[in-house]
Amino acid sequence: MAAMDVDFAEYKLRCELQGHGDDVRGICLCGDSGIATSSRDRTVRFWTVDLADKRKYNTCKILLGHTSFVGPLNWIAPNDEFPEGGLVSGGMDTLVLVWDLAKGEKVQTLKGHKLQVTGIVIDDLDIVSSSVDSTLIRWRKGQIVESWEAHSSAIQAVIKLPSGELVSGSSDTTMKLWKGKSCLHTFVGHTDTVRGLAFMPDLGILSASHDGSIRLWAISGESLMEMVGHTSIVYSVHSHSSGLVVSASEDCSTKIWKDGICVQSIEHPGCVWDAKFLENGDIVTACSDGLIRVWTTHQDYVADPQELESYAAKLSQYKSSRKRVGGLKLEELPGLDALQIPGTADGQTKVVREGDNGVAYAWNARQQIWDKIGEVVDGPDDGMKRPVLNGVEYDYGQYHNHFLGWCIKQIS
Fold first, then answer.
1. How far apart are CA 44 and CA 152, in angstroms?
2. Which stretches are WD repeats (predicted)?
3. Is the same domain home to 328 and 312?
């Protein structure tokens, strides 16, 4: 992978941050102070570098207050009110909570959204939040100062540009650029929900979508580049001052992009909800297995060989446990001896286990034999596709009902 570009050094595991009891949903970089993470376990955790081993992080604070899973986070830099900085979090419980890190306590509860909060922006002394209820709300000193229906369906993300405007991304497939409550531009191009947004200095806005792509847009609205490589929903995207871009996806990978090309794909033992660059270029990922991982290109920071081995084993175990053939676990499929039983109708299909694969056979009534059709692989989007053979889609009815959502890879 790295051979494509001499300037690119491959990322390796630096450390795993353990503590959350469920999916880690969001990551927030807190200046030089540390990292904050949000989880389905209803908590926010604040992590700082382990002074005894600079490669690692320790939990410094656990923030309890949300009554359902926590998603977006944003950092309030230290000021008179928050001498050690603060955090703002949004949850499935419709609340926006403000936390004082020095005390590790909730200092404000902002009630106003009707559904899940999906994005948080710090705009000077104001907070702007987005929600599945399709609104953006501006809060000042704990009060709503303005609220507007910004999209025709759920808003999934909001960011602030250095120039002051806001950008929102929605399930209506569009993004909108806002100055106050005025929409300056609507970005059209994605074919499904816009899930994640990030600013890319000197270039424009990055968007991650349920359509599996990442796009780079000029502020003027022009689509400059499309990055394609993920095989499922892309939940988040982030950029680094080096020009690298990182994305997180439902396909259990984090991908690193350079000039629109994927230069590395890091597999995870679960869905990756979020990925962010640290200032030094390291990457932090949030996974559905409840762990946060830091990845580095700095040789001195790479995890010990046994930690790397343990991660490789975990990954391998996860992949084999997920190996399914059309909704059935591989180990549940019958063996080759099932082909000794004659078929009952011409064209009847049967899937059997051969080694690590599921292989489809069709009954040939004239010759009274089972003809091998090909290897069966799960389709890319859970039942959305019909079985495919030689580029031709077959109707479900022609196959045993377990074929829903699979493709058949023909054996040449």
1. 31
2. 17-50, 87-109, 148-179, 187-227, 227-258
3. no
Q: What band does 377 get if pLDDT is binned at 50, 70 and 90?
A: low
Cα–Cα distance between 94 and 159 in angstroms, integer? 19
145 and 201: one domain? yes
Q: Do 294 and 17 touch, CB atoms closer than 8 A?
A: yes
Q: Provide the β-strand partners of residue 115.
A: none
Cα gap 389→395, rounded to integer Å: 11
Nearest-5° angle of CA 89, CA 94, CA 96? Answer: 30
- Over residues 194-204, mean pLDDT: 96
Helix (H, G, I), strand (E, B) or coil at 49: strand
Token reading at 19: 């503590």
Q: How confident is the model over 374-396, as a mean pLDDT?
A: 46
207 membership: H or E segment, kind and range: strand 204-209
DSSP string, 307-347: HHHHHHHHHHHHHHHH-EETTEEGGGS--GGGGGSPPSSTT
Which residue's structure tokens are 């499309």? 226
Give CA–CA dist 199/169, Å, rounded: 13
Tell me the β-bridge partners of 87. Answer: 75, 99
User: By C-alpha distance, which of 230, 152, 148, 220 is closest to 196?
Assistant: 230
User: Under a CB-based contact definition with an 8 Å cutoff, are residues 130 and 99 in contact?
Assistant: no
Coil, strand or helix at 357? strand
2 part of a folded domain: no
C-beta of residue 169 within 8 angstroms of C-beta of residue 186: no
Residue with tokens 């005025």: 182
Location of structure tokens 């992978």: 1
Looking at the structure, tell me whether residues 181 and 264 fall in a common domain.
yes
Domain containing residue 395 = 324-410
Given phi > 0 = left and psi -120 to 50 = alpha, else beta, which region is 31?
left
pLDDT surpassing 80 at residue 322: no
